[in-house]
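Reopening this ticket.

The earlier resolution said the output was attached, but the attachment link was broken on my side. Pasting everything inline this time so it's all in one place.
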Amino acid sequence: MDEKTLAYINLFAVLGSLTRLCELDGDCKKMIEGKNISIGIAVKDGPEGTIWFHDDRCDLIPGVGKCDIKLPFGSCKKFNGLIDGTVTPIPSKGFTKIGFLLNQFTKLTDKLTAYLRPAEGALDDPEFFTISTTIMFHLILDAVAQIGNVDKVGKASASYIVDGDVRLAIDGGPEGHLHAHGHALTAVHTPCEHPTSYMVFSTMKDARDLFDGKINGVAAVGTGQVRVGGMISMVDNVNRILDRVSMYLA
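Inline output:
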């Protein structure tokens, strides 16, 4: 596992999931009502992005040029330590607004963790299950893009993906697509009208079982739990990258 790849996943996939959290969870949406504040994360030799809370929503934008609070990290490993709880960040900018970081932002990340690592029995609640699985779907979409662009093995698989769009969706649930151009991948969290290939899960439960490693992807295609089509070589190489997601998110 590569620390740099993990840092990109942690910023753009894990913390990027705050955007969906604030859309889907009513309590979290209330926490950011009326807020206009941004937290920039700058990792040396790694990713940079700003989490912007505004207009009762959350967005993740590249760079840290206009952030209110800036959290610098001397290495990818140190930033990854923030995510696993072993490193406490020290802001280099925005000390007067640190209350938001210690209060609302911490509560939001704690709630996100609850959805991504649900307690035993939590998924038995239908609403919790739907929110958790939807967040996980979009997180995995982002993680596939980061692994395909940064991870050495992932880049090898991405080098075989032709230009086009791979639609990923759950029937009756969330959908998005991976846009491939020049063997670089971009996660797009909106439907794709004219996909080059597709991978569609038949139900939310089937998708969740695959995410949690309870069913095998190849076997799921055989049973009809997952439908694939279009340019199959694209799906095959996306699946190779997808296999590495669980290693990084374990």
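Reporter confirms the inline version is readable. The chain has two domains: 3-116, 122-249. The beta strands are 36-43, 48-54, 57-62, 69-73, 164-170, 175-181, 184-188, 197-201, 226-230.
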